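Exercise 7. Given the encoded structure of a 125-residue chain, write a plausible sequence.
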């Protein structure tokens, strides 16, 4: 299984894993699961950190490596996938994560009901 973590779920994985549903945490931690983290999430985290809206754990890259998470760059195919998405959510970062999940056939792990309303495979966090 290949998963894409939304930004909130990523932060929970790194700092508060008990906030995740038990079944979801098991899937994320399973050795045969490939877990992707989008560059869009890193960008969102940094923007919120710079605005003082979020405390960011130190060493994000190192933590991603420790968890064996795989970086997912934003590619042109992801931007193209945005065209086919309905306008259900105003957050551009969440929309990009949905587009990446659709374009790359990933299961998006999210706690956001608005995101789960998109035509993408999702897993509740």
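Solution.
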């Amino acid at each position: 299984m290949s998963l894409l973590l939304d930004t909130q779920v990523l932060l929970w994985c790194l700092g508060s894993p008990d906030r995740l549903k038990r079944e979801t945490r098991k899937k994320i931690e399973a050795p045969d699961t490939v877990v992707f983290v989008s560059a869009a999430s890193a960008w969102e985290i940094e923007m919120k950190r710079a605005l003082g809206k979020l405390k960011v754990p130190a060493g994000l890259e190192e933590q991603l490596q420790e968890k064996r998470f795989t970086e997912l760059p934003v590619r042109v195919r992801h931007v193209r996938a945005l065209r086919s998405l309905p306008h259900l959510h105003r957050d551009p970062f969440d929309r990009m994560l949905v587009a990446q999940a659709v374009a790359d056939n990933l299961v998006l792990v999210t706690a956001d009901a608005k995101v789960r309303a998109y035509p993408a495979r999702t897993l509740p966090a």
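Remark. The mean pLDDT is 94. Students should compare their own answers with the one above.
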